[in-house]
């Protein structure tokens, strides 16, 4: 997904929970740092997840274990745009279970990157994550 902001700013949107909480999770135990472990909470769903930061290259790459590997690559496209690639891997189980995990991951990260784009480019919180499964 192309986001029309510099790579350093897009990288920070995922590394700094003060920004990430504007479009993805509700809160975090801390900023992403190489070798750290943080917890992310989605308060509207009553769930949390522990994230271990495997690699952090400012404005270039984030790699985590959550619980499977996820990697963000930030490719500058000129001075004011960044192409973001998110790759999730390490799915386990039967072939059908792995396909289901890959589809779920793809859907989730597509929502996250679209929400990030809306926030960074237009300052709009689309509510995509909370609205995916609203409470009844």
UniProtKB/TrEMBL annotation:
Source organism, top-level taxon: Bacteria
Membrane-traversing stretches: none
Protein name listed in UniProt: Polyketide cyclase
CDD domains xref list: SRPBCC_CalC_Aha1-like_8 (cd08901)
Chain ranges of the Activator of Hsp90 ATPase homologue 1/2-like C-terminal domain: 6-113
Entries under InterPro entries matching the protein: ASHA1/2-like_C, START-like_dom_sf
Family of this protein: Belongs to the AHA1 family.
